[in-house]
Amino acid sequence: MTITSIQKTKGVRPLVMITAYDALFARLFESSSDMILVGDSLNMSFAGKSDTLSATMEQMLYHTNAVCEGAKSSFVVCDMPFGTYDNKDDALKNAMRVYKETQADSVKIEGGESRADIIEYLTTHGIAVCGHIGLLPQSVRSEGGYKVKGKDSIQREHLLRDAKAVQKAGAFCMVIEGVKAEVAAEVAQSVDIPVIGIGAGTGVDGQVLVFSDMLGLFEEFTPKFVKKYMDGASLIRSAVKNYADEVLKKEFPKEEHTY
Which residues bind Mg(2+) per the record (predicted)? Predict the structure, then answer.
């Protein structure tokens, strides 16, 4: 996939996006996904943090490099972590690091109208940007939790302005998160670039999920919008227990596993 081919899916077919944080899973996901997002969600899924805010550029660069190695032909998007794009100069410096130090195809930035000037500054300097509007995980502390958007006419108008501002600033696509389905559909119809939903219904141009959620690996909590496609945690526990039992009984390794 390229920016051009991604944009051409608008109104033709839904885009499939999934998160990945290492080469192993990126390789497994490559054949079924259009885009792989190296999300700062890794801070919660694998670093045990309560939110995404403490993710660093060094973490994101490390994991983006791993994903790019594992899925060399995928379109890879790197989340810009909290505090790395508060002004134009910092945003460009950090986005350039992503481009220079990894093979990522674009960066993702949270925020609509309030971040439009940052998005425009990056795109005019050769950085491809995926926007992110609606529920913004990096704003969870300032908003007092994860709150669904689009519940009233004021929020609806705000989301429509955000989407149009992100498009005008030059983003090639955007994520819309935690938004009432009918409003998300209206937002998607209001712009010419793909709008990829997470907790935003089916009336958008694609879907993204955190892979550890959809595979049932992350057990701390399950958002309403997540469908678990397998009970990964139970399967892994069962496999490891079988291994431990065989070790304790000296049933492993057998002759076929021995040099």
Answer: 40, 79, 110
